[in-house]
Amino acid sequence: MIIKTLELKNFRNYADLSLTFNPNLNLFIGQNAQGKTNIAESIYFLALTRSHRTHSDRELLAWDQKEMSVAGTIVKKNATVPLEVALTSKGRIAKVNHLRENKLADYIGNLNVIMFAPEDLAIIKGAPSVRRRFIDMEIGQIRPVYLYDLMRYNKTLKERNSYLKFDKAKIDENFLSVLDDQLVEYGQKVISHRQSFTESLNAISSELHDTLSHGKEKLQIIYAQNVKADFASELKAARQKDLFRAQTSVGPHRDDLQFLVNDIDVSNFGSQGQQRTTALSVKLAEIDLIFKETGDYPVLLLDDVMSELDNQRQLDLLKLVIGKTQTFITTTTLDHLKNLPEKMTIFTVENGKITENATKNDA
Fold it and tell me: Which residues bind ATP (predicted)?
């Protein structure tokens, strides 16, 4: 899977931009705050209809603009597919082959991307909510039905929490039981998806981590499931506590992931080097996992992370991805990048203007 072309209209600091990419490696070089990350963000937005940097759509719009769009031509399995996502006065509109998709969940999965940015270390050392969001976004790319199941679960969860805030004397226990049944039905599907995903991610990432650590470290990823045995009975047992606290205390909305390196919880007790290697192993594992699920390798976005890695990790990373995935790297300088491949295109980014200043054997 590759992105052949990209067109931006009023996205961040790009009023009107058209780019054609190298199918192998694309390097975007420029100082900070010039627009490099905006390119990576636009590709992520084209894939998932949302930003990895902000929850506010308004921040994606160019100054004083009310609408924007990101369009791209995707080549996968010998098929060329035009994609477009726009923010308009009528809301978010996603199109495949110029035809609007009624549900965003039906759109997601047409372009699969793996983003690795400095903030992705939060997957390892951040809050459980960060790891749940990571799970949700990655499973959603490869199994669109997951997004539908998750949406139904979250909708029921919100309804149940709202009902728990009612006057306790007016609570209808039978209606609460109906909500519990729905929550269990949808929640069990979410749990099943997450279990399967974590098992696959663990199998692939543990092998990659062994390679990246040169056999010195063993990585294990554990699905820290909030529901211990039977969702229905645990939810029923927690009902009085939930009524008192006016919130649902049991369910996959409280799940987490645990990362063990040599049997030590690396999130809390690992070194910064171990945390970086773990994050890198997880991100690289997603590449093979998506290929396993879809038959196509995803696009890899490396946003300002190469300077965060030492020379050996850089070399290991490039050896593992170059020639396998179409890769986009944003960086302030080439000085720290070693052993770059022959097949690549270099773009210079300055004040929202992009110049293609070098192409090496991009055939």
Answer: 30-37
